[in-house]
């Protein structure tokens, strides 16, 4: 191998090797392998793909636009490629290897049945623009999933195409804007509670709305009077997460919806936390006009290291006519049709199109397989187990850690703040990093922003009691150590992860975003 | 229920520890008016065998591309994906992890993203790339918004030969965010005049190459004209494999390059999930949307990777963010990167040549069918034919003979007098026999 490691992995002046650790010749430590970048294998003329021998055209018909400079990308043989990525994978934490209690992310078990059915050639090897007569099963599947989503949420329509949660938010807010425009009503303000996820205000701003914040009550929930006092003919919508990002069900949600509707505005619900209530509450019964459903959260399509997600949006009667193209219609005996263009004289008034094709079909298959496996009884049980597990974790920790909103039961996630650390010089971040050394993925930290040093724990329904007990016992031990002032246990954490704490400040100040062969600037600085 | 580990005894013990009598007590905040006493009206739980059987039934009602002579493209392409790719993306540690919020235990995902960004830069000829977008169409809409921010103008000019669905996504986003957009009319024969549409009021011109009819577009004069007018060139590529053989947009003066990356590593999947590529110039970095991975060191001085420049993003900036995007298309980006690592630059070029050669052979075969006119003088792996009958009818008739023979332009742009046009693609997956079958079936259905 001709990889260039010299002066690279020890770049900068940071840190010295702890004395208790012996250096190895390779830099590896047992199963923990230091893996270079593919570009450092340095073999430009290699390829790991044998293509069929074929007539490679002598004269190109590219209109004179052929590449002049050959691509400077190394190729690796198949065994090298396999080994490279398997080694990289081993420095990742994953649900399959342990509890992943990342609040607001719903990291639940990903059944492999769903992967298997998503790979049936009749579902994976079909083109989005094949004649619709040749994809009747695909359209039936989308229609079936749409039905399940509508029944589960108690809303009459669903836009299937949004590609992720934030894309679903955009879709819902576009429908709201289109509905106001259709009435000739140019409203300019969107209300967002202060505990909202950052995508909510970002989405509203993208559509040109001015964002106004609704403060939370002392108990972490939204006061309908606070909403009512903010209402005006200028308010287009309220974007509310329910259960909210503090893990609480908004007890006055129906009252809030009423206040919104009375002012001629719409109620957008962020459905990120639908896992807590599926089968127990239908958002349609709460007065919701639009809500995205993160199929990758509630319905367990794999998170894939950060996507792909899927974010279908259920819509009320008022917003249904504005749903974006395309959609599937069932013609009974005649099968299914796909509406891809607005037809004149139709009562629908689609606001437009969110994406090139029909949405995240691969995710639809997996989500529907999850729903059919659970059935309506299992979906309700999943929500109950998720809520039970979060409250169990809370009950086991609340004598040691601080619960900022003790007046309400938690839903599927429990929020702590860092009040219990005030006497120590240990931070939320330190607790998270020490959990890594104990073999856990930490909880969500510093979100939501409404409490100081937030720790948001979402165990999901996938954990056994034994798993929860070990997590709780570990956290208790860490908190006791923190209160005792056992600084050493935290300051250097994580010590046993593939990397120790990384310098994020320099990464942002002097961004290095791709590999460069000799990187002249950096070398000059060294 | 096989996915739920808690037993009835566990549940009882946990309720006891919490100090409540029943699970209902934990839902006490739910208003009575919305309280459900039992499950919603959907079927009950099913065993693995039953679910599998149901999905086989869905699958059987579709004609899989692999079971047909297959020539559809128009933004989604059927390439051969090495078995290694699908194995690697199903590694638990890639498949069931999330956004690398804790970089110390996410270096696998982060290093992959760093490799991905580097590959995207090299392919497109640009200086910086993000960690991916949802797909090519949404990346295009984001590119237009970025151009508005950079130029402080709000009027985009969109080529008539941009994929109509991409144009629709740009149109929707622009209209609902109160921006002005000029959509030119399509030029199926190629040679679209974009220069006269660019003036000092526009933020960007959006051009696809090869365009939706398959014509490669010389971006250089367009970039020059755009830059003279103080506007940016947004180049769109829907077939990433073309970059193996064609001059990259970055070398022709593009300021933002967006692409659909599905062709590498990702199957057709009826339109999604796919992976959007997004690349730009270093100087525009702070206005680039989406996640970005950067290199740094840990406290021991070891090289490592983190998500960075998050001050552009919604979770920090909220309503002032560059975009509302939160996730990327991580696993699809991994598939892209593994496939491209296997291919290498040499392999990608060879693959691209093979695609071009297949398409050349196909074009020559179809040109000999009576009544069929190939519109393109130049193309990569996709071109447009004019038929003596409505293309949608012909596509349907061909499907009846087991040939998925391309995408009728009327499917993408109905009612615009383009009904006789069929967009046809060929890739390395097509054999000589496929091509002969297509040509002879086309002859039959036209007869």
TrEMBL record, chain A:
Q: Which GO terms describe its biological process?
A: glycine decarboxylation via glycine cleavage system
Instruction: Indicate whether Oxidoreductase appears among the record's keywords.
Output: yes
Keywords, comma-separated and alphabetical: Oxidoreductase, Pyridoxal phosphate
Which EC number applies?
A: 1.4.4.2
Chemical reaction(s) catalysed: N(6)-[(R)-lipoyl]-L-lysyl-[glycine-cleavage complex H protein] + glycine + H(+) = N(6)-[(R)-S(8)-aminomethyldihydrolipoyl]-L-lysyl-[glycine-cleavage complex H protein] + CO2
Annotated GO molecular function terms are: glycine binding; glycine dehydrogenase (decarboxylating) activity; pyridoxal phosphate binding
Q: Mention any one GO cellular component term assigned to this protein in its UniProt record.
A: glycine cleavage complex
Q: Where is this region: Disordered?
A: 1-27
Record InterPro entries: Aminotrans_V_dom (IPR000192), GDC-P_C (IPR049316), GDC_P (IPR020581), PyrdxlP-dep_Trfase (IPR015424), PyrdxlP-dep_Trfase_major (IPR015421), PyrdxlP-dep_Trfase_small (IPR015422)
So which domain of life are we looking at? Bacteria
Aminotransferase class V domain segment(s): 175-304
Query: Which residue intervals define the domain Glycine dehydrogenase C-terminal in the entry?
Result: 382-477
Q: Which NCBIfam families does the record associate with it? A: PRK04366.1 (NF003346)
Role of this protein:
The glycine cleavage system catalyzes the degradation of glycine. The P protein binds the alpha-amino group of glycine through its pyridoxal phosphate cofactor; CO(2) is released and the remaining methylamine moiety is then transferred to the lipoamide cofactor of the H protein.
The name under which this protein is listed is glycine dehydrogenase (aminomethyl-transferring)
Q: In which organism is this protein found?
A: Lutibaculum baratangense AMV1
From TrEMBL, chain B:
Does this UniProt record's set of keywords contain Iron-sulfur?
no
The answer to keyword Zinc applying to this record is no
Q: What residues does the Glycine cleavage system P-protein N-terminal domain cover? A: 1-438
Choose any GO biological process term that the UniProt entry carries and state it.
nucleoside metabolic process
InterPro entries tied to this protein: GcvPA (IPR023010), GDC-P_N (IPR049315), PyrdxlP-dep_Trfase (IPR015424), PyrdxlP-dep_Trfase_major (IPR015421), PyrdxlP-dep_Trfase_small (IPR015422)
Judging by the UniProt lineage, the source's domain of life is Bacteria
MF term (GO), any:
glycine dehydrogenase (decarboxylating) activity
Keyword list (alphabetical) reads: Oxidoreductase
According to UniProt, the reaction catalysed is: N(6)-[(R)-lipoyl]-L-lysyl-[glycine-cleavage complex H protein] + glycine + H(+) = N(6)-[(R)-S(8)-aminomethyldihydrolipoyl]-L-lysyl-[glycine-cleavage complex H protein] + CO2
Known EC number(s)?
A: 1.4.4.2
**Top-level EC class, please?**
oxidoreductase
UniProt function note? The glycine cleavage system catalyzes the degradation of glycine. The P protein binds the alpha-amino group of glycine through its pyridoxal phosphate cofactor; CO(2) is released and the remaining methylamine moiety is then transferred to the lipoamide cofactor of the H protein.
Family classification: Belongs to the GcvP family. N-terminal subunit subfamily.
Assembly and binders = The glycine cleavage system is composed of four proteins: P, T, L and H. In this organism, the P 'protein' is a heterodimer of two subunits.
The record's annotation in PANTHER family points to: GLYCINE CLEAVAGE SYSTEM P-PROTEIN (PTHR42806), GLYCINE DEHYDROGENASE (DECARBOXYLATING) (PTHR42806:SF1)
* NCBIfam families per UniProt: PRK00451.1
| Protein's name according to its UniProt entry | Probable glycine dehydrogenase (decarboxylating) subunit 1
Q: Recite the lineage of the species.
A: Bacteria, Pseudomonadati, Pseudomonadota, Alphaproteobacteria, Hyphomicrobiales
């Amino acid at each position: 191998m001709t990889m260039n490691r010299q002066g690279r992995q020890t770049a900068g002046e940071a840190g010295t090797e702890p004395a208790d650790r012996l250096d190895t010749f390779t830099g590896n430590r047992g199963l923990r392998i230091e893996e270079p970048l593919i570009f450092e294998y340095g073999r430009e003329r290699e390829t790991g793909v044998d293509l069929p021998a074929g007539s490679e055209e002598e004269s190109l018909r590219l209109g004179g636009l052929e590449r002049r400079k050959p691509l400077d990308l190394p190729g690796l043989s198949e065994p090298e490629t396999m080994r490279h990525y398997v080694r990289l994978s081993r420095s990742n934490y994953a649900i399959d290897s342990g509890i992943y209690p990342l609040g607001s992310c719903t990291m639940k078990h990903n059944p492999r049945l769903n992967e298997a059915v998503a790979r049936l050639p009749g579902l994976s090897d079909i083109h989005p623009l094949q004649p619709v007569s040749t994809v009747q099963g695909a359209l039936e599947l989308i229609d079936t999933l749409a039905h399940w989503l509508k029944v589960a949420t108690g809303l009459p329509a669903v836009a299937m195409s949004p590609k992720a949660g934030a894309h679903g938010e955009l879709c819902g807010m576009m429908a709201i804007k289109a509905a106001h425009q259709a009435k000739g009503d140019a409203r300019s303000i969107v209300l967002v509670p202060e505990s909202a996820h950052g995508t909510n205000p970002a989405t509203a701003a993208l559509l040109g709305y001015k964002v106004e914040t609704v403060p939370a009550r002392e108990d972490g929930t939204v006061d309908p009077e606070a909403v009512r006092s903010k209402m005006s003919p200028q308010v287009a919508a309220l974007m509310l997460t329910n259960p909210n990002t503090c893990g609480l069900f908004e007890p006055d949600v129906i009252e809030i919806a009423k206040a919104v509707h009375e002012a001629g505005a719409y109620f957008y619900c962020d459905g990120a936390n639908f896992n807590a209530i599926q089968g127990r509450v239908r958002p349609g019964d709460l007065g919701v006009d639009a809500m995205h459903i993160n199929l990758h959260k509630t319905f367990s399509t794999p998170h894939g290291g950060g996507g792909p997600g899927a974010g279908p949006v259920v819509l009320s009667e008022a917003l249904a006519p504005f749903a974006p193209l395309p959609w599937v219609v069932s013609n009974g005996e005649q099968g299914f049709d796909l509406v891809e263009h607005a037809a004149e004289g139709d009562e629908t008034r689609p606001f437009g199109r969110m994406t090139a094709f029909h949405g995240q079909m691969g995710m639809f298959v997996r989500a529907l397989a999850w729903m059919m496996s659970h059935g309506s009884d299992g979906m309700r049980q999943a929500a109950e187990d998720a809520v039970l597990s979060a409250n169990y974790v809370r009950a086991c920790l609340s004598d040691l850690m601080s619960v900022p909103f003790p007046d309400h039961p938690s839903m599927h996630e429990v929020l702590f703040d860092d009040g219990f650390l005030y006497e120590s010089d240990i931070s939320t971040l330190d607790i998270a990093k020490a959990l890594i050394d104990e073999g856990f993925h930490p909880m969500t930290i510093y979100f939501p922003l409404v409490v100081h040093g937030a720790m948001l724990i979402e165990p999901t329904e996938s954990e056994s009691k034994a798993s929860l007990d070990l997590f709780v016992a570990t956290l208790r031990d860490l908190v006791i150590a923190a209160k005792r002032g056992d600084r050493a246990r935290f300051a250097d954490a994580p010590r046993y992860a593939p990397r120790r704490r990384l310098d994020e400040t320099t990464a942002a100040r002097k961004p290095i975003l791709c590999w460069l062969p000799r990187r002249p600037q950096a070398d000059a600085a060294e | 229920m096989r996915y739920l580990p808690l037993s009835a005894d566990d549940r009882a013990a946990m309720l006891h520890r919490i100090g409540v009598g029943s699970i209902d007590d934990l839902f006490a905040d739910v208003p009575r008016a919305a309280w459900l006493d039992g499950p919603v009206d959907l079927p009950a739980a099913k065993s693995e065998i039953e679910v599998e059987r149901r999905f086989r039934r869905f699958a059987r009602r579709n004609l899989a591309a692999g079971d047909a002579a297959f020539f559809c493209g128009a933004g989604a392409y059927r390439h051969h994906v090495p078995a290694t790719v699908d194995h690697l993306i199903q590694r638990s540690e890639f498949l069931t992890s999330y956004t690398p919020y804790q970089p110390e235990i996410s270096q696998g995902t982060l290093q992959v993203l760093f490799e991905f960004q580097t590959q995207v830069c090299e392919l497109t000829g640009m200086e910086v790339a993000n960690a991916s977008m949802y797909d090519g169409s949404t990346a295009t809409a984001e590119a237009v918004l970025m151009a508005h921010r950079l130029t402080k103008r709000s009027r985009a000019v969109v080529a008539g030969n941009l994929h109509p669905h991409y144009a629709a996504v740009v149109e929707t986003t622009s209209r609902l965010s109160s921006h002005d957009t000029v959509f030119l009319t399509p030029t199926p024969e190629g040679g679209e005049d974009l220069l006269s549409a660019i003036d000092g009021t526009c933020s960007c011109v959006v051009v696809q190459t090869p365009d939706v009819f398959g014509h490669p577009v010389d971006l250089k004069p367009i970039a020059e004209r755009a830059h003279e007018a103080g506007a940016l060139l947004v180049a769109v590529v829907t077939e990433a494999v073309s970059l193996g053989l064609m001059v990259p947009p970055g070398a022709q003066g593009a300021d933002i390059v967006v692409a659909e990356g599905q062709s590498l590593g990702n199957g057709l999947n009826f339109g999604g999930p796919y992976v959007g590529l997004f690349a730009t110039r270093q100087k525009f970095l702070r206005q680039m949307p989406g996640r970005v991975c950067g290199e740094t060191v840990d406290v021991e001085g070891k090289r490592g990777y983190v998500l960075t420049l998050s001050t552009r993003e919604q979770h920090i900036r909220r309503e002032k963010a560059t975009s509302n995007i939160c996730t990327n298309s991580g696993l699809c980006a991994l598939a892209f990167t593994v496939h491209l690592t296997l291919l290498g630059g040499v392999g990608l070029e060879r693959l691209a040549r093979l695609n071009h050669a297949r398409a050349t052979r196909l074009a020559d075969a179809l040109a000999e069918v009576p009544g069929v006119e190939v519109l393109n003088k130049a193309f990569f792996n996709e071109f447009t034919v004019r038929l003596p009958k409505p293309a949608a009818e012909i596509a349907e008739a061909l499907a009846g003979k087991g040939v998925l023979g391309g995408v009728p332009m009327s499917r993408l742009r109905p009612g615009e007098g383009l009904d006789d046009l069929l967009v046809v693609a060929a890739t390395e997956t097509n054999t000589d026999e496929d091509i002969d079958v297509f040509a002879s079936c086309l002859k039959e259905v036209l007869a």
